[in-house]
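Aim 2, interim progress. The first record below pairs a target sequence with its structure tokens.
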Amino acid sequence: MSTAHVTRIEGPLDLQDALARRAPIEQAKGILMAVHHISADEAFALLLDRSQSANRKVHDIAREFVDEMSHLP
């Protein structure tokens, strides 16, 4: 008889945190898609590339990008 692997089920706080981190990523993707006329996958690849080259998390890169874009004249 094999032992089943137990995984942790996310609670409400984990879900809220995940959604809070995902929102800026989706917003940044939308901006990139509109400006560069690219697909969602291509927009995410741009964010991922920037994240890796800066050695920072994607959600941090996305949040800063959205903040910068929202303050343009």
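The second target in this work package is listed in the same format:
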Amino acid sequence: MNKNRYLLCILLCGVLLYYGVPRLSPFSDGPEGIFSIAWVVFALMVVAGNLTALLYTPKKTKATKRSYNKVQKKKKIYNYQ
């Protein structure tokens, strides 16, 4: 389930980059240029974080059937005085 969420976040960020980068002007002077560069850097950090999470999530181990010999049964101990 989490892998689907990571993939969805990567795709949505890719769409935002696709539509946003042509409209940004990182070579402008003043706050417009700073905002453009910061926006692209944050978007790339989002992609990198989700890609890292997608690639390095531990794989789920399949539940194996345990035999009764390996599993210790809990015994109730009664102390009568």
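The helical segments are 2-20, 31-56. This observation will shape the mutagenesis plan for the next reporting period.
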